[in-house]
Amino acid sequence: MADNAYPSVDAAQGADAPPVRRGLKKGLYLLPSAFTAANIGMGYYAVMASLRGFQLLDGPGEADYARATTLFDNASRAIGWAILFDTLDGRIARLTKTTTEIGIQLDSIADVVTFGIAPAVLIYAWGYGSAFEDGTQWHKLGWFFSFMFLICGALRLARFNVQATRPKVLAEGTAKVDKKNFVGLPIPAAAGLLVALVHFAPAPLLTYGSYWSGIYSGLLMALTAVLALLMVSTIRYSSFKAVGSGKRSPIKAMLVIAAVGMLVWLFSRYVLVALVAAYVLHGLLFRLASLFRSRAQAEGA
């Protein structure tokens, strides 16, 4: 009885220490998946909040519109937090060397839910779904653009997974993928621009009157179409994976992250729109610059 209750020090160190280390290693494998699960949770909340806000727009009073505005803003914030979780789960997995095949697949599924379905539902409920009367041609067109955003985002993720695994059959005759750049606009960035607009002006477009709500809804559909095309394009976007990798870079990177974080905290409505819009535009500008360089070199030759 006493031996079972109070094992010797040697026995504890010899028998119990290795399982503790193995348990810690298993716990590290769960850490990236926990962030991925939080990503899915934020996407689920965004969908439910968007649906509830859309339902409240049928209410007769200003209180219902105010409540819907709050729900739409909360949905946009949830997707914003999901972008942070999505950024951290991969970096933590690489840092702790706990990358697994199931984790990679789970991350892709989470991205389809949170950055595909959730923003598509949100912009429909907040924007053209409420601005245009049900059954009209414009309303049906809104359905179409939301669907195209979702399907292009799913194709973008599928292409990224194929390029990441690089099977030999697909790799023959193709250039090696540059890990410093993404091919096509990443789906979190595309979703980020849409939800940043919602966060900037969370009041549903219905509240701007029939004329301006129609104008804003048309512009929103055009933006959604452009983002969908950018996701399946071959335009390269920086992945920022090399940030902080140099000897002096970590300090500079920490200062930039701290400054941007404080600006987002204080002026989130303006800073988030500016940051995401700049990221979306930088790929287009670099592509245009490369085309002009290529044309200049061809004319010079």
Keywords:
single chain, 301 residues, mainly alpha, two-stranded antiparallel ribbon, 79% helix, globular, disordered N terminus
Describe the structure.
By secondary structure, the protein is mainly alpha-helical. The protein has one domain (19-300). The protein is 79% helix and 2% strand. A two-stranded antiparallel ribbon has the order 1-2. Helix 2 packs parallel to helix 4 and helix 10 packs across helix 11 (268-300). Mean pLDDT is 81; it is low at 1-20 and 168-175.
Share of β-strand residues: under 5%
Overall strand count: 2
N- to C-terminal separation?
91 Å
Low-confidence stretches: 1-20, 168-175
Indicate the percent of residues in helices: over 70%
Query: Radius of gyration in whole Å, from Cα?
Result: 24 Å
Largest sheet: 2 strands, antiparallel
Question: What is the number of helices?
Answer: 11
Shape: globular
The pLDDT mean sits at 81
Tally of structural domains: 1
| Spatial strand sequence of the major β-sheet | 1-2
Strand pairing plus helix content: what structural class? mainly alpha
Question: Helix and strand string, N-terminal first?
Answer: HHHHHHHEHHEHH
Brief account:
This protein is mostly helical and 301 residues long. The protein has one domain (19-300). The chain has helices at residues 2-5, 9-56, 62-96, 101-126, 128-131, 137-165, 168-171, 187-200, 209-231, 249-266, 268-300; strands at 181-183, 236-238.
Q: What is the topological layout?
A:
Layout: H1 2-5, H2 9-56, H3 62-96, H4 101-126, H5 128-131, H6 137-165, H7 168-171, E1 181-183, H8 187-200, H9 209-231, E2 236-238, H10 249-266, H11 268-300
Helix pairs in contact: 2-3, 2-4, 3-4, 3-8, 4-6, 4-8, 6-9, 8-11, 10-11
